[in-house]
Each structure stands twice: as structure tokens, then as C-alpha cells.
Amino acid sequence: MSTETKGYIRWLGHAAFEIKVYNKTILIDPWITNPKSPVTLDELDKVDFILVTHDHGDHLGETVEIAKKYDSCVVGVYEVTMKLAEQGVKNVLPLNVGGSIKLTSEIEVSAVPALHSSGCGVPVGYVVKTPDIVIYHAGDTGLFLDMELIGRLFNIDLALLPIGGVFTMGPHEAALATLMLRPRYVIPMHYNTFPEIRQDPEQFKDLVERIAPHVKVLILSPGDRVPIPLRI
Ligand code: NI
Ligand code: MN
């Protein structure tokens, strides 16, 4: 790692990511017990913030357990955070589609639409903004034309997109999403966790190289870290 590295993003398998920026640890969709997870719950560092895209089990994951252990602040759509509060999560930050909140003076989170379903509230994606990086986590979603708008509204450095198909976009749709979002880098996620969402990430990479050649595809293995800021 170069000396200018200020943090990192680490894939914990499925849709779970750990982001370390400005001395804060943020987890997105912390299903830490997923079959491909590189860590156990006990191996996690102190978690400051948890972002939940929607309340399906493979995204809500161990949110309640982790939040109780570390007194983490849980960010989610209003109805989801109310349910979590009922389950004993003390520190919640509700928001809704189109809204933004500051987690610290350097870290801001915006909720953007996701085309999917949920038990309560609505599913969302998140844009995490710091002075060093802008990360878009799409959550579970199908392809929708407003991704073009998300790309215009935020200058995305890194997009995290589902490619597993069946429950979300597959490689073709995700490649078109990449074209619309215009990030600098894209990381495929939400595939090969279980048999129904088996995919070849190289197929996604080939498609992106063909239709959005200006975007660099980073294929990670669970546990891999990408330094922040990203190198050009
Ligand atoms: Ni889902
Ligand atoms: Mn899912």
C-alpha cells in the first residue's frame, strides 16, 4: 500500500462491504455469516455505522447483533429503522429515497432508488461521499433508466453492482448500468454466494470493456481490499 492510502474498502462476500474512511468503520448490508464470508462476527473491528439497503435477510444480516455489540449507528429507510429500534437497536438514523445525511463532518450518505422489493419500507441504494471517494452501493436492484440520473447527480468513483441475476440484475444489465452510471471503477457483487446466483464475473468484465471501456472492472475475491483513494 502506498503512503497516501487513507483507508480501504473490503468485500465481505455477497453484498457486504466494510469501508474504512476518516477513522470510521462503515458496514453495508452486513450478512457476515454468508457462505463466502472471509471473517467471523468476532473478527470484525469496532463498527461505527451500518447502512442497510433493505430488510431481506441476505442484506439485513447480523445488523441487530453487531449494532448491539458496538453501539453502532444504523442507517436505513424509516420503516426499517423503526423495526430495528423495536428489536433493541438504540442508535438509528432514518432517511428515505432522495435524502442525504451527514454521518460525520467528512462522511455523507445519500439514499437513492433501487428497483426491488422489501418486507417493510422500500429498498434503496446508497451513495457514500467523503473528500477522498464517492462510492455507490446499488443494493439489490434491476436495471432502471434513472441510474443515468444517479450518475449525473453524483460523481461516482466506485460503483458496487449486483450481477447474480434471478433476484437482481445479471451481467448484461449491470454492464448497461455501468454505462449509465459512468463510475471510474466498478466491482461486481451479489453473485456465487449460492447456486441460484452463479455467474462468471469475467463475462461482466468483457461486456463492460465493450460497452463502457472507460470504466475499470475490479473483480474481487471475498476478503480483498481496495485502497482509498483509488489510484487512477
Ligand atoms: Ni433483496
Ligand atoms: Mn439480495
Number of helices: 6
Mean pLDDT, to the nearest integer, reads 97
Shape: globular
User: What is the CATH topology?
Assistant: Metallo-beta-lactamase, Chain A
Number of domains: 1
> What is the N-to-C succession of helices and strands?
EEEEHHEHEEEEEHEHEHEE
- What ligands can be seen in this structure? nickel (II) ion, manganese (II) ion
Percent in helix: 10-25%
Q: What is the spatial order of strands in the main beta sheet?
A: 6-5-4-3-2-1-14
CATH architectural type: 4-Layer Sandwich
Cα end-to-end separation? 14 Å
Strands, count: 14
Structural descriptors:
alpha/beta, Metallo-beta-lactamase, Chain A, seven-stranded mixed β-sheet, 6 helices, 14 strands, binds nickel (II) ion, binds manganese (II) ion
